[in-house]
Design a protein that fits this description.
The chain has twelve helices and four strands; from the N terminus they run ααβαααααβαααααββ. It has a single domain, classed as Recoverin, domain 1, CATH 1.10.238. The longest helix has 21 residues, at about 180-200. It is mainly alpha-helical. Residues about 45-70 and about 230-244 have low confidence and may be disordered. The chain is globular, with a radius of gyration of 20 Å. Helix content is about 55%, strand content about 5%. This is Calcineurin B homologous protein 3. Keywords: Calcium, Cell membrane, Cell projection, Cytoplasm, Differentiation, Lipoprotein, Membrane, Metal-binding, Myristate, Nucleus, Protein kinase inhibitor.
Length: about 240
């Protein structure tokens, strides 16, 4: 991350932006380097394929550099043991490149992410701090729920269908070893019906249902302690709750 002096300044800035301690940032930087193959960015597979086509068309193809560059692909996330059995693994990986989560654009996916982008996403998984006041707690919870909402609003239209919401619940429950598959499906069906009552119940008679908005999503999850249902053990850090 640069020379010793500039590195310490950069770390201080990242501490301020993300809320991570300097030790956590150093630890995450080591994991980022592993994922990126010591490159400055982690790239999507689409970027890799474009790069390959350019290299081949110019007859400047070099096998060793290709292997190194392919290692920087986001597919490396699939090799993380902590994510291997996570029921929403593919959505978590995609979320790292979602411009909404990176706070760069209202839609679309980034072609690559740098270390600061990586920390921005990891900050959504940061545990709730015990010294937070009520306003800070509410903001933190809202941001984590927004991150979850974005996972299922894949077309960035600001809405998810009831069926997609049902899948949210079932996928999360499927990672719990104490809940059988049929039970998870039954609970998910009930959650979908409850969500429907929240959304449809507040509609005007002439209003057409178009899906669950983020405000609806907040109402549905209000008062529910989902911290015990949504844990992600990730990147060799402590078990981090996605929501509180």
């Amino acid at each position: 991350m640069g020379s010793s002096q500039s590195m310490s300044e950069e770390v201080r800035e990242l501490v301020s932006k993300t809320g991570f301690s300097s030790d956590q940032i150093e630890q995450l930087h080591r994991r980022f380097k592993q994922l990126s193959g010591n490159q400055l960015t982690i790239r999507t597979r689409r970027t890799q394929l474009t790069w390959m086509a350019t290299r081949q068309s110019s007859w400047a193809f070099n096998h060793s550099s290709l292997q190194t560059d392919m290692f920087t692909s986001k597919e490396n996330f699939n090799n993380i043991p902590d994510l291997e059995l996570n029921p929403i693994r593919s959505k978590i990986i995609r979320a790292f490149f979602d411009n909404r989560n990176l706070r760069k654009a209202p839609n679309g996916l980034a072609d690559e992410i740098n270390f600061e982008d990586f920390l921005t996403i990891m900050s959504y998984f940061r545990p709730i701090e015990t010294n937070m006041d009520e306003e800070q707690l509410e903001h933190c919870r809202k941001e984590k729920l927004r991150f979850l909402f974005h996972m299922y609003d894949s077309d960035s239209d600001g809405r998810i269908t009831l069926e997609e919401y049902r899948n949210v619940v079932e996928e999360l429950l499927s990672g719990n070893p104490h809940i059988e598959k049929e039970s998870a499906r039954s609970i998910a069906d009930g959650a979908m019906m409850e969500a429907a009552s929240v959304c449809v119940g507040q509609m005007q008679p002439d209003q057409v249902y178009e899906g669950i908005t983020f405000d609806d999503f907040l109402k549905i999850w209000q008062g529910i302690d989902i911290e015990t249902k949504m844990h992600v053990r990730f990147l060799n850090m402590e078990t981090i709750a996605l929501c509180h």
